[in-house]
């Protein structure tokens, strides 16, 4: 249970800069930020952060836990997924509530609440997926009132029953404008993608190329054309748009141009697009790395890093959708049968810290903006979440500036029995994670109570905030 605490002696990343200060916590909230608070602790528990960096807890805005998908169910649920997040300094996550056959948006949210309750260690909420526009369109306003101001449409996944067409996207964006809410879009061009897959889907090609066909059948224009189209519907409707898991340099250019023209669009990328490339499909384990969109080329990663620093890309998330080796083995040599997705919650902060901050691509403040402050503002959970500020929830991660750990799937909290970063040496794992004042990771080990995580009620971020975010 939380009580008075003081985090003492750390370098604290605040919205106005990095300062040497103590952070006082009263109950669930940050009550003061100033040097020397620990000298008058008055019975508060003092947590030593000397030699460490104190950052706002990470908010992973793109997560799928226990998702029925690709003929199986993703293997991290709210128990293992939120434990993994805690170890990685993640204190809030946003999943996607998907209405299955005949279900309303409200029933989808209820189903996702039931998955989380009693299991989640960190706070959570859901984006609401609009999968059947005509059935769902009149339910959108009610979901905003219920505290869910962000919606999602997929431009692919027809076989899952999730795909939206241009008419649906156009109509949903009109609603977003009317309600001051935001549409998240998975942008890949389905008809041409299906055609390229059909052309390559022969026993000869599968034998010859194996998992490499995943990348070969999804050239960059598959994502770029879809982003361009979604941005056009955003421009003409004025409905706020957010492109999820952007993976290409072309996509980044489209977003940059659109933002320069005042179109209300933002984009996120994910850790895997920043540090992996399509050479991963060449190995024996290449199929493990299958996700949609797939990881691209080093020049795409370089452009995405630059886009983060320049403000073209606003957020880094994970798109966590974990499948074990056994689940991935369902592919049996046919890349179209790979359960698509990878684990990510536990390594998001270490990847961005090590490959972004330590390698000089992002400053510490920029990292915290992309992992915490922007996610909170864009998704409508600021000022409660996303920054070290008086009155905000005491969601914090304390990291060592240099100490590295070797990624070893056998020691991780995720249910995955593999990691895309197996053997990588990463700094930035959380020594101490606090969620609303409770210590949930201590000395790099998860110690929090399962089920303590709470649903986060959100409000629309508003167009002015969307424009400001970068
Ligand atoms: O491969 C992925 N990304 N799996 C999760 C579903 C999605 O498209 O986000
Ligand atoms: Zn997606
Ligand atoms: Zn996703």
What do these coordinates show?
This protein has a single domain, classed as TIM Barrel (Alpha-Beta Barrel), CATH 3.20.20. Helix content is 33%, strand content 22%. The protein is built from 16 helices and 21 strands. Strand 7 (68-69) and strand 8 (72-73) form a beta hairpin. Helix 5 (166-179) packs across helix 9 (220-237) and helix 9 (220-237) packs parallel to helix 10 (249-260). The radius of gyration is 21 Å and the shape is globular. One zinc ion (ZN) is lined by residues 186, 244-245, 292.
Brief synopsis:
The protein is 33% helix and 22% strand. It is an alpha/beta fold. The protein has a single domain, classed as Metal-dependent hydrolases (TIM Barrel, Alpha-Beta Barrel), CATH 3.20.20.140.
Total helical elements: 16
Q: What low-confidence regions span 5 or more consecutive residues with pLDDT below 50?
A: none
Q: CATH class, please?
A: Alpha Beta
User: What ligand species are in this complex?
Assistant: N-(aminocarbonyl)-beta-alanine, zinc ion
Helix content: 25-40%
Mean pLDDT, as a whole number?
A: 97
Q: Looking at CATH, which topology would you report?
A: TIM Barrel
What is the makeup of the main sheet? 9 strands, mixed
Kindly provide the radius of gyration, computed on alpha-carbon positions and rounded to a whole number of angstroms. Answer: 21 Å
Care to count the β-strands?
21
Supply database-style keywords:
470 residues, alpha/beta, TIM Barrel, 9-stranded mixed sheet, binds N-(aminocarbonyl)-beta-alanine, binds zinc ion
List strands and helices in order, with pairings.
Elements (H helix, E strand, L loop, with lengths): L4 E10 L2 E10 L2 E6 L10 E4 L4 E4 L1 E6 L4 E2 L2 E2 L4 H10 L2 E8 L7 H12 L6 E7 L3 H4 L3 H6 L4 E5 L11 H14 L2 E5 L3 H11 L2 H7 L2 H5 L3 H18 L3 E3 L5 H12 L4 E6 H5 L22 H13 L4 E3 L7 H4 L19 H10 L6 H16 L16 E4 L4 E3 L18 E3 L2 E6 L2 E5 L2 E2 L16 H6 L2
Parallel strand pairs: 1-4, 1-5, 6-9, 9-10, 10-11, 11-12, 12-13, 13-14, 14-15
Antiparallel strand pairs: 1-2, 2-3, 5-16, 7-8, 16-19, 17-18, 19-20, 20-21
Helix pairs in contact: 5-9, 9-10, 10-12
The structure holds N-(aminocarbonyl)-beta-alanine and zinc ion (ZN) (2 copies).
